[in-house]
Amino acid sequence: MRIRFLITLLSILLIQLPAEAKKKRHSSRSHTHASNHSRKHKIAHSTFVPIQVSTEGEVWGLDISHHQQRIDWEALSQNQPHFVFLKTTEGATNQDDKYSENYQGARNNNIPVGSYHFFTYKSSGKEQAMNFLSKVKFNKGDLPPVLDLEFSRKMPPVDQVKIELMDFISIVSNKMSCFPIVYCNYKYFNKYLQECLPEKCKLWIVDYKAKPDGNWTFWQTSDKHKVQGIKGYVDLNLFNGTKNNFTGLLMN
User: Fold this and answer.
1) Average pLDDT rounded to a whole number, residues 202-231
2) Which of 17, 103, 164, 175 is exposed most, by the fewest CB atoms within 10 A?
């Protein structure tokens, strides 16, 4: 009787063991799946990674200032950029000490140049226009001048900003017989330019997240571009059009 009881008990245990093992395997798979799902969820909420824009097949160029220090223009020209924008002046008195050197280096290597002024809010648009005109070079084959507009920590009243910007644009366009290209982001355009910017001013939009919508001519896609001839990072820009369209922008 005792032996029969032990045999029955052993049989029951042998039947239950595979079921328990199967249950544990299922539990383990469920836990692994839950962990993977959690990791995906965290990745989906990770910080934004800037888009990678290729220059292949594009009309592309760079914008450069004294921050890039000494440039090997011969090496840079091997990359065949279609244009460069060069910082010329800032505010009412500042002038980029690498501008003349960079301008000559680009021209010597047949790279079209656009010269830009960085606008500040501590002096009038007229004073800043005069500073720009005293330094800028503008010759056959160059791009139109550029007005670089960015927010400062403390901005003047909106109406005052508009007045100074329009003064700058009016003076420069009358003197150079060419309306400047305007560089800004969406927020700046909507706040200060949407209602008053002359139609002949072409837009250069900065957006590191996606291709801009609307009517733009140049797009700054990144401030982390690497190219032969320049140490460190440099800004990358694309032109919205064909090479023939681009050539039509150049001074005759």
Assistant:
1) 94
2) 17
